[in-house]
Structure to design on (232 residues):
């Protein structure tokens, strides 16, 4: 039995992992898919003070309070920042670290560095508009199939803006995790993610896998995601 902790990306919640979770549980594994503070069923807690440290603490809390060990920790998209920070706090509890079409930050990086111009403009205008959160991308832009778009759009929520401007402090703890995997969703054009794949391909301590689906791979191809995770 393997223990999986699945961390969602911006605007999503633990709900987005339901299909993958069901497949893993059916194989006899334990799955935790926490929803980060201010999102999903915790959207009523949205607050201007929610930052990267808040979301990292959300996941660290699950691992510590559930007394989890040898965890396969998976981060999707923005969740790459979170799992990188979690590795700093509870690295010895991790058996594997998986980035699913996710950002892989270096020390001092922030989400705002690699986000779209529209998001940067919204953040820059926040002092004038009074906004504390970022509006979600439509599911169609994330490569979600038409049949699932209403479901995803209906459940995505505003995302705490401070998490995009906070800079992460890393010492390289993620590099010390025994098994490291990057899964690229090739149906979603992304030069930054392709650059990560090219970099990791030359590093024997990393394994790289590809799926043909869009960015929300856990929605678009749950069977493919589960299949790869089960090899870990």
């Amino acid at each position: 039995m393997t223990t999986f902790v699945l961390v969602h990306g911006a605007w999503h919640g633990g709900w987005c992992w339901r299909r993958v979770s069901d497949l893993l549980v059916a194989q006899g594994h334990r799955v935790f898919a926490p929803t980060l503070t201010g999102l999903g069923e915790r959207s009523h807690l949205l607050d201007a003070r929610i930052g990267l440290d808040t979301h990292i603490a959300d996941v660290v809390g699950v691992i510590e309070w559930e007394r989890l060990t040898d965890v396969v920790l998976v981060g999707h998209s923005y969740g790459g920042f979170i799992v990188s920070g979690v590795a700093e706090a509870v690295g010895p509890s991790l058996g594997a670290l998986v980035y699913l079409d996710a950002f892989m930050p270096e020390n001092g990086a922030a989400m705002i560095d690699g986000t779209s111009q529209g998001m940067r403009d919204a953040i820059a205008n926040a002092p004038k508009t009074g906004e504390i959160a970022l509006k979600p991308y439509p599911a169609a832009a994330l490569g979600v199939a038409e049949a699932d778009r209403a479901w995803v759009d209906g459940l995505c929520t505003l995302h705490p803006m401070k998490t995009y401007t906070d800079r992460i402090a890393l010492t390289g703890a993620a590099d010390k995790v025994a098994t490291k995997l990057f899964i690229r969703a090739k149906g979603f054009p992304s030069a930054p993610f392709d650059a990560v794949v090219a970099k990791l391909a030359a590093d024997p301590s990393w394994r790289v896998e590809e799926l043909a689906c869009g960015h929300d791979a856990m929605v678009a191809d749950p069977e493919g995601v589960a299949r790869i995770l089960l090899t870990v």
The CA atoms of residues 15 and 40 lie 8 Å apart.
